[in-house]
From TrEMBL:
Keywords: Signal. This is C-type lectin domain-containing protein. One of its GO terms (molecular function) is odorant binding. Residues 270-390, 424-555, 600-721 form the C-type lectin domain. It comes from the Eukaryota. Residues 1-22 form the signal peptide. Pfam families: PBP_GOBP.
């Protein structure tokens, strides 16, 4: 016996003497409470195991219900209750407390639970506290329930003794022995036991309460306490599990104990034991194999285990205080909570009428080839069962939502800035707009309160594939390459798992991979990427290095997220009217439609033949082989204004443009370009736009060119145009920007010269030319790169070849953050940065220009050449300021001068 136990023994003797002298305490060996008192002191000094009772002495011990003296107090916070001599105790199995018709309760379970409660008390350092009114809480279940308990519930913070006094004996904590000798703990009144309630695995427990009267209150501070209702806490949690693993080393199981086996139904490997052990011992043996005790995080994995029919331990536990009420379960081996959705599924549980006791706090799984005979069951953690070990999966453990990204109502702030939002069936998807590593992608989705993209089954993959049906490069508005949450890190090659909020989840075997994938190229491709393909394949999976940069993608259960509105453009199809063209595809009587001009890289028509409303005007431009003009940039508006001023008054009037905010009062859109307005690029008439006026026109008069709004039903002239045809769409776009900014062709070639560009001095006009190119390509606006469009250009020019794609995304990541006060300078610096990091990719983006549209042959045979009329000093009449001729044979030249030739 060590010195601590000797001191403990001496203390007991001194206490006994003090009791007889001061009449403060009375300890009786015949009183169960006095036994608990001595055990508390011994445990405090000598450790818990020395307090364990002999099970032989406890066997068949009962507590009579008709004794005239007070009954021994059962522990209050984890399942004990005091019984009144005048109250009948209900018959049945309630939480492992066996009760007979005669009102007797076996001591075996009571004693075991008491010892656990004493251990909790020693840990907490309790104080004897008896309140005037203390709520007693009972829980139970019916025949179909899964758990019962009998408890007197009190808050640990105010009722920390965890046991109560008896007639003729007072139980005390060690701290009380050191308190004032004048403070006494009074004797309590008897309690009445209420009818016990029921609850099911998927329901919260119902709480019934009775109150206990007491004559006084005693605490360290001797304070008065109010009535408190606290549900009984669970006494088993993952701390017990984890402590066992830390303090109990073990050797690896021998070959006779079990082996790695292969599940043919889902093509996964598990260690399956042949020996039966307790739950914690099973976890310890899995740890020795560098594996985890089984978690069953999906119905797919439950079916996967059918290859090994038996009953096996899992690491599932009812976790934490009040777990029966909260129905909170955890996978102790991985530290994740069990999904509440999974817990609520009938198929997750084995169909049984058995009623488990409160001691059955661990989960085992019954596996079977018959789906009706499989599922999770409750078991006592000390039962001996075989077990299954899983390979570890290196999923991130922390997934934290970032509150700063949401407004007080819980709505995501500026949601459109994160990418494209799509609703498909029961999910809302976010296809993001930034390239990042696999781990950063996972963290980004967590910050948004979402899961990283995962695919539950082939049907979900088909739903995403349907997005690609009928899509073209010009109509596809997302990117093509996204991260998923899947990884195999820590597991054998090819054994993939989704990293979901409730832990690693089995990877469905019937998803569509790219041909030859996964291939673990280079031996380090441990994460899965998802790719949209604009052909019959639709979507595919490949494995990639987790450090690669791909675009993040998230999903969540479908929610009504307010989507950014987009103005509607009626009659999006633009059809030419073949009946008004000749055999050479030239307009018949083209001079009758209005004034034609060639400038700014485009064919422009100031349509004045007749006035039309906005919708009809748009259709009329299309019928002529043109589109209604968009004034999307300040450079284009400035260039057109030069033509307007030069050839006034033929260009004066009000002319419909393709801008509208129909269906979206908060934002205008250029329908011909399918692009939103960029306000800094616009020059509005004073007081415009006007609320309620939904269509945009060009007001051209007195040398001023401004944008204004009007009712779409008003009838006005039209402004139509077409990008002048060139050798390629890229050249056509360059010509337009070159004319706008007066850039000669040799300077354009200079921009693509890798050697010369880096060291040359670039003029302001040439910098603005670069902005114009980026703007027309749809990759630059408001002084920065447009994320999705720029990334899509990189995907297209690299043909999504992994190494080149990684280089392009890395260059974008480094260069996209450049922003200076002058937009033309910003465009130049971004271009220069990209040219240094990925010259081939940048050059190919400019050359290929996948987004260049609206290019075609002029619908008229000749462009007009306008000349100022000459006047002879002998002619008294004045010419019109701008007579013009068409380049046709001289005999057919037509001139106008007040109806006569000039």
């Amino acid at each position: 016996m060590n010195i601590c136990c000797v001191i403990s023994f001496i203390s007991l003797v001194l206490i006994a003497v003090g009791q007889s002298q001061a009449k403060l305490f009375e300890i009786s060996n015949k009183s169960p409470s006095s036994k608990l008192t001595r055990r508390i002191i011994i445990v405090k000094c000598c450790g818990f195991k020395r307090c364990l009772p002999s099970r032989a002495n406890l066997k068949n011990r009962t507590i009579p219900t008709t004794s005239k003296r007070s009954k021994p107090s059962q522990f209050t916070e984890s399942g004990f209750a005091s019984f009144s001599s005048n109250e009948a105790i209900p018959t049945g199995n309630y939480g492992g407390l066996k009760q007979t018709a005669a009102g007797e309760s076996t001591m075996e379970t009571l004693e075991n639970d008491a010892l656990k409660e004493i251990e909790d008390f020693i840990t907490d350092g309790g104080v004897v506290t008896s309140t005037k009114t203390t709520t007693t809480t009972f829980r139970g279940n019916d025949k179909k329930g899964t758990r019962n308990s009998v408890s007197v519930a009190s808050s640990k913070s105010i009722f920390s003794t965890k046991y109560e006094e008896t007639s003729g004996a007072t139980a005390v904590a060690p701290e009380i022995l050191r308190s004032s000798p004048t403070e006494t703990a009074p004797k309590s009144e008897m309690m009445a036991l209420s009818t016990l309630p029921t609850f099911f695995p998927t329901e919260a427990a119902t709480i019934f309460s009775t109150t206990v009267a007491s004559s006084s209150t005693m605490t360290r501070a001797t304070t008065s306490l109010k009535t408190t209702t606290t549900p009984a806490p669970c006494f088993l949690n993952c701390s017990d599990f984890n402590d066992f693993l830390l303090r109990m080393p073990t050797q690896k199981p021998s070959q006779s104990d079990g082996s790695i086996q292969y599940s043919t139904s889902c093509k996964r490997q598990y260690y399956v034991s042949k020996t039966a052990v307790s739950r914690n011992e099973a976890a310890l043996r899995c740890k020795a194999l560098d594996m985890n005790l089984l978690t069953v995080t999906s119905l797919e994995e439950l079916n996967c285990l059918s290859s090994f029919p038996d009953t096996f331990w899992t690491s599932g536990s009812m976790e934490g205080k009040n777990c029966g009420l909260e129905k909170r379960f955890s996978w102790c081996s991985t530290g994740y909570d069990i999904s509440p959705t999974l817990i609520s599924m009938e198929k997750f549980w084995l169909r049984t009428d058995a009623t488990p006791s409160t001691l059955e706090r661990c989960l085992a799984v019954v596996t079977s080839i018959n789906p009706l005979n499989q599922g999770m069951i409750y078991r006592n953690c000390d039962d001996a069962l075989p077990y299954i070990c899983q390979f570890n999966v290196d999923c991130p453990k922390q997934c934290q939502k970032n509150p700063s990204l949401f407004d007080p109502a819980g709505n995501l702030i500026d949601q459109s800035s994160y990418g494209v939002w799509i609703d498909i069936e029961s999910y809302t998807y976010l296809l993001g707009n930034k390239p990042m590593s696999w781990l950063s992608s996972w963290q980004q989705c967590c910050a948004l309160g979402m899961e990283t993209l995962n695919i539950d089954n082939a049907a979900e993959q088909l739903g995403l594939t349907n997005l690609t049906f009928g899509a073209t490069l010009n109509t596809w508005k997302m990117n093509f390459n996204y991260w998923t949450s899947a990884t195999r890190k820590g597991s054998p090659v090819g054994q993939w798992s989704w990293c979901e909020p409730y832990g690693p989840t089995i990877f469905p075997p019937n998803l569509t991979w790219q041909g030859g994938q996964p291939d673990n190229n280079g031996g380090n491709e441990s994460c899965v990427h998802y790719r949209f393909v604009l052909n019959s394949t639709g979507t595919i999976l490949t494995d990639r290095n987790c450090a690669n940069k791909l675009i993040f993608a998230c999903k969540t259960r479908r929610v009504e997220i307010p989507k950014p509105c987009i103005a509607s453009c009626p009659g999006k199809s633009c059809r030419r009217d073949a009946t008004i063209f000749d055999v050479d595809n030239k307009l018949i009587d083209y001079t009758t439609y209005g004034e034609w001009f060639d400038g700014c890289g485009r064919t422009n028509l100031f349509y004045t033949k007749n006035k039309l409303n906005w919708t009809s005007g748009r259709e009329q431009c299309c019928a002529l082989g043109l589109t209604m003009t968009s004034m999307e940039s300040a450079g284009k508006l400035s260039c057109l204004s030069k033509t307007v001023i030069k050839f006034a008054p033929l260009t004066y009037g009000d002319f419909w443009l393709s801008g509208t905010n129909l269906g979206c009062p908060s934002g205008f859109r250029w329908c011909s370009l399918d692009r939103d307005f960029i306000n800094p690029e616009l020059r509005w008439k004073t007081g415009h736009p006007v609320e309620g006026l939904n269509c945009v026109y060009l007001e051209s008069r007195n040398g001023s060119v401004l944008l204004a709004t009007a009712d779409c039903a008003e009838e006005k002239n039209l402004l139509c145009d077409l990008r002048r045809k060139a050798a390629s769409s890229q050249i056509a776009m360059q010509n337009e920007c070159a004319e706008i900014w007066n850039i000669p062709s040799d300077q354009i070639d200079f921009l693509l010269n890798t050697t010369a560009f880096g060291s040359a001095t670039i003029s302001q006009n040439l910098k603005c030319f670069l902005k114009c190119i980026g703007f027309d390509m749809g990759v630059f606006k408001l002084g920065k790169l447009i994320d999705i469009d720029t990334l899509r250009q990189i995907e297209l020019v690299t043909q999504e070849e992994p190494v080149k794609l990684e280089q392009g995304f890395a260059a974008y990541d480094e260069c996209s953050g450049i922003k200076l006060d002058d937009e033309c300078v910003t465009a130049h610096e971004i271009y220069k940065c990209g040219f240094e990091k990925a010259p081939t990719i940048v050059t190919n983006i400019v050359k290929n220009n996948y987004d260049a549209t609206n290019m075609g042959s002029s619908p008229i045979p000749f462009y007009p050449v306008r000349r100022t009329c000459w006047l002879s000093k002998f002619v008294s009449l004045r010419c019109k300021p701008n007579c013009y001729r068409f380049d046709q044979p001289v005999g057919k030249r037509r001139h106008w001068f007040n109806g006569d030739s000039c």
